[in-house]
Automatic annotation (TrEMBL), chains A, B:
Family: Belongs to the homoserine dehydrogenase family.
Residue intervals of the ACT domain: 353-426
Originating organism: Streptomyces curacoi
InterPro entries named among the record's database cross-references: ACT-like_dom_sf, ACT_dom, Asp/hSer_DH_NAD-bd, HDH, HDH_cat, HDH_CS, NAD(P)-bd_dom_sf
UniProt protein name: Homoserine dehydrogenase
GO MF annotation list: homoserine dehydrogenase activity; metal ion binding; NADP binding
Pathway membership: Amino-acid biosynthesis; L-methionine biosynthesis via de novo pathway; L-homoserine from L-aspartate: step 3/3; Amino-acid biosynthesis; L-threonine biosynthesis; L-threonine from L-aspartate: step 3/5
Catalysis: reaction(s): L-homoserine + NADP(+) = L-aspartate 4-semialdehyde + NADPH + H(+); L-homoserine + NAD(+) = L-aspartate 4-semialdehyde + NADH + H(+)
Needed cofactors: a metal cation
């Protein structure tokens, strides 16, 4: 049965994503009404530059006073697509206080203040949905917090930043260096003028915090996420990866410790085997691999950014929140009951690929192997290559803690026969 | 806030899936209670053979009287994992009438009677959830009917049967024939003693009907789904596919017509390019590729069958239905408002790979090409190979309707110079 009074939506932000949300709300109005059970109406659009012409949006709806818009009291759902911490945080909080539910695409805010925002939403018995905050259109938040709600997730391994995946894929397929690949990404619009948030892993770290929190029913703050960018990855690293049957991806990795009593979250470049489904994720695509007790291995793949895909995720949430509103219910809120401690990076256990420049003389391998043994790091394979009196030693370890590996590398650097540590890279996905 | 009165669950069926559902309900009871907001309790288990020892299940809960169990009146959720049409249909209907919501893994029943069951559920204001009915643990129903509820899905292309994917993957990687690969699948437990439902595409067709219905907000009955099995696929077909840079998969394909005014659903073997993400889905895994207006291309990948993965999907639904129950709401029901006509197979437009055995003499190609032209089927490439006075002609067409292709083949068979049509295979995913 169709209700005739429309649900009112306030849109905060009308850039690439916001304008697409508005466009789809207009062009697909009949479908949205049928799927929700009531029409939805754009009741206001808060922007910074009101004079800009916005095709398809009634100028009478446009305002620069976002605060007044969220305080109106007749708004059912506020869609926040302005990004950043403030004024988004205050506007969302104000929206809850004035009776609206919220759909947000704001990963930075959710990663930093998700718990506080969920608390305000719950206090006012409202929904806070944010599928668009992680991996664009790929349904990930909903599958993790609903489809897998009866399962125990042990690991989330994801390519959650399209810019860096484009750059690494380019380096892999053409042999280009980092700067050359970045320049191409910038020219094609895949990288921003200041690519820091992407290439230094800040964007992926925010997504890792959100994913870990949902997967493990535990609060994981942005500060809890270990973060290493991918600007140091070289063509030589790709060559090493190829020799191992691997490629290199910037991964967001959220893991439950083997004893189940703690979790970790980290972002760094890593080698993964070519046979792993994540290895074949090309260009600016995203994909997230989820391992859980009962369901085994699942993967979710799709465009991780862009106006239309992000708008699709926002609108899926909008439909869900509107349905909840009509039935007088709210969807699942924050689930942090497990409250597991988040362990530091030193506790993370994984494998490592280490390239050393060493003196080309007898006994060096024995010295190096002794250092690994003394730190309890077991060696899987060693490959030695001589070149002009110098030699390189490539060591791949068995699983070891990051702390043990760190101690090993520190000790290796002190050896006279070790001229330098050319690279250290983690090996994942095996 | 935790409610202390437990929600009561009745389990119909305690085979591979049911026993795993019961096990997880027991071992993960605390997690389920925390995620739902109330404890869940196994209140009864209906089985056929009560004397069988079932580890971890209180014998006092076991009954052979499923009807009495669903009529008890104190049951909150009935989990139906017995499969087949009857008695499942009557039991589910009775459950709704006696106040329970239902979680089902029954693809055959949902494909055949989904609309009627949804109607009874709605009449009694109860939930009917069935994530486990399609592609095991892979979240697919929920993403399609919730995450993509604000988008317009145009195509669903899926590997939704693990048995046939195992067989085809084996044929592809080893060059084995169909029978040899089937024998191995049977020996390893991937194929049942009577593999008809899998290899003839009945199982995939049921899933296609369910997926098409949800994707297009339109009722699609099992009878609406064109179905062709994969028992005729030969090693020669794989060789042809390889020459085209393709492999062969049994695909379930649900499409919206280009004008948006009708839909089609079909299951058949098809060539797909090796570069397509579905091409690298190995073994008994499932994957579903979804194309929509705003989100572009998404893929969902994971184990498509098995006790634990299916139980994971059932339990995710159980949590959702229990949450709905506590909040006094129901989740999204059937959405068939679009009511688009389902077109027959003849209207499907795709590309074709046709191998003809022809006489090795001048003019044959001209004759064949004329037949294609007369039927309005445009040729993309032709390859001619001579062998001992005979020749083979491999034609790959541009897009054409199935009806036009059928007419073409009929006419080709009548040509004196065409000795036989060795194979016809559709080419998808381009």
């Amino acid at each position: 049965m169709m209700r005739t009074r429309p649900l009112k939506v306030a849109l905060l932000g009308c850039g690439v994503v916001g304008s697409e949300v508005a466009r789809i709300m207009t062009t697909h109005a009949d479908d949205l009404a049928a799927r929700i059970g009531a029409p939805v109406e754009l009741a206001g659009v808060a922007v910074r530059r009101p004079s800009k012409v916005r095709e398809g949006i009634d100028p009478a709806l446009v305002t620069t006073d976002a605060t007044a818009l969220v305080k109106r009291g007749d708004i059912d759902v506020v869609v926040e697509v302005i990004g950043g911490i403030e004024p988004a945080r205050t506007l969302i909080t104000t929206a809850f206080e004035h009776g609206a539910s919220v759909v947000s695409a704001n990963k930075a805010l959710l990663a930093q203040d998700g718990a506080a925002l969920h608390a305000v939403a719950e206090e006012h018995n409202k929904d806070l949905y944010y599928e668009a905050a992680v991996a664009g259109a790929i349904p990930l938040i909903r599958p993790l917090r609903e489809s897998l709600a009866g399962d125990k997730v042990n690991r989330v391994l994801g390519i959650v930043n399209g810019t860096t995946n484009f750059i690494l894929d380019k380096m892999d397929s053409t042999g280009a260096g980092y700067q050359e690949a970045l320049d191409e990404a910038t020219a094609l619009g895949y990288a921003e003028a200041d690519p820091t948030a992407d290439v230094e892993g800040f964007d992926a770290a925010a997504k890792a915090a959100i994913l870990a929190g949902i997967a493990f029913h535990t609060r994981v703050r942005l500060d809890d996420v270990y973060r290493e960018g991918m600007t140091e990855v070289t063509a030589a690293d790709f060559a090493s990866a190829k020799e191992m049957g691997c490629t290199i991806k910037l991964l967001a990795i959220c893991e439950r410790a083997e004893d189940g009593q703690s979790v970790t979250a980290r972002v760094h470049p890593a080698m993964i085997p070519l046979s792993h489904p994540l290895a074949s994720v090309r260009g600016a695509y995203n994909a997230v691999f989820v391992e859980s007790d009962a369901s085994g291995q699942l993967m979710f793949y799709g465009p991780g950014a862009g106006g239309s895909p992000t708008a699709s995720a926002v609108l899926g949430d909008l439909v869900a929140v509107c349905r909840n509103r009509l039935s007088g219910a709210t969807g699942p809120g924050e689930s942090a009951y497990a409250a597991l401690p988040v362990s530091p990076m030193g506790d993370v256990v994984t494998r490592y690929h280490i390239s050393l420049d060493v003196a080309d003389k007898p006994g060096v391998l024995a010295q190096v192997a002794t250092v690994f043994a003394e730190h309890g790091v077991s060696i899987d394979t060693v490959r030695q290559q001589g070149k002009d009196g110098e030699a390189s030693l490539v060591v791949v370890t068995h699983c070891a803690s990051d702390a043990a590996l760190g101690g090993t590398v520190e000790a290796l650097r002190k050896l006279d026969t070790v001229r330098g540590v050319a690279s250290i890279m983690r090996v994942e996905g095996e």
